[in-house]
Amino acid sequence: MKYAIITGASRGMGEAIAKRMLEEQIAVVSVSRTENEEIRQLALENGLFYKHYSCNLSLEKEIQEVFMEIAHCIYQKKPNQIYLFNNAGVIEPIETVGNLDQTPIIRNIQVNLIAPILITNIFLNKGSLAGTTVHAINITSGAATRSIEGWSVYCSAKAGLNMFTQTTALELAEMKTNNKIIAFSPGIMDTKMQETIRSSSKGAFKELEKFIDYKEKSKLQKTEVVANALVDLVLNGSAESGKIYHVSDLLN
Ligand SMILES: NC(=O)c1ccc[n+]([C@@H]2O[C@H](COP(=O)([O-])OP(=O)(O)OC[C@H]3O[C@@H](n4cnc5c(N)ncnc54)[C@H](OP(=O)(O)O)[C@@H]3O)[C@@H](O)[C@H]2O)c1
After folding, report:
1. Residue 167 falls within a domain, yes or no?
2. Is 154 a catalytic residue?
3. What does the CA dihedral 62, 68, 71, 77 come to, rounded to 10 degrees?
């Protein structure tokens, strides 16, 4: 049996990934602070394994407890393949350096960078003991390689996630297992994260008008389109470990 563990499946891109995985008859474990009832219903209708774990990914103690429990639950089912989608993310704080508050800085780095590192570490460790192939997919951003004024924390966290992906891939290659890790930059999508961006202030975020324009001119991609492109890549087995994919590489 194949399992997909998806953080941030309650809405946005994570929700779209979860729904597509269920359509592919792949069991889903969802992790976020709130649960998406539509995903539960879809799994029920298709007779597929689904479980939601409530977890605040900005708290490392919760991550450790919840993901050890998930690993225990899944590995006793002897899965042949685990897809680990580190998708949950936060854009805030949107503010210039010198005017940042401490708590949102720490929360951003915890959710966007520390959580994916901790979770990937747990699953690669348990996977090697159980003989299960693990494919980790880290959802990154164009902001990892483009400096965006007002997004210094988000840019730094996503840049760190890219480097974590590439370094882990080197280590996995050395171990000669079938495990893989990739990063995927989804482009601009019509989600709550974009609403948060549009509600920021011009003083804090220089590119505000450009992002308002994206919405007004319908330039934001639907999450289903982006998730389908990613899941196609992951399931067809052609993904190259260590590579940072961009949605534009996959959509014609
Ligand atoms: N939207 C874009 O244009 C865009 C562009 C580039 C990259 N991305 C990346 O794509 C990914 C998905 O973003 P999205 O646009 O779908 O965002 P979204 O609609 O805001 O959804 C974010 C998800 O992350 C979860 N999350 C946030 N903080 C959490 C926490 N402390 N603990 C647990 N879960 C938490 C949320 O769940 P709960 O609130 O239920 O906990 C939610 O399911 C992110 O990694 C983002 O950085 C998005």
Report:
1. yes
2. yes
3. -120
Partners of 106 in the β-ladder: none
CA of 78 to the centre of ligand 1 (A): 30
Which CATH number does the domain housing residue 22 bear?
3.40.50.720
Question: Residue 92 falls within a domain, yes or no?
Answer: yes
Atom of ligand 1 nearest to the CA of 188: 3
137/85 Cα distance (integer angstroms): 5
Among 13, 29, 57, residue to substitute to test ligand 1 (most atoms within 8 Å of Cβ): 13
Structure tokens at 43: 């799994």
Domain that holds residue 36: 2-187+222-250
pLDDT along the chain (252 residues), means of 10: 97 98 98 98 97 98 97 93 98 98 98 98 89 96 98 99 98 94 98 98 98 98 98 97 97 82
Tell whether 210 is covered by a domain: no
| Cβ within 8 Å of residue 65, ≥6 positions away | none
Q: Could you tell me if residue 145 is inside a domain?
A: yes
Given 53, 83, 154, 214, which residue is catalytic? 154
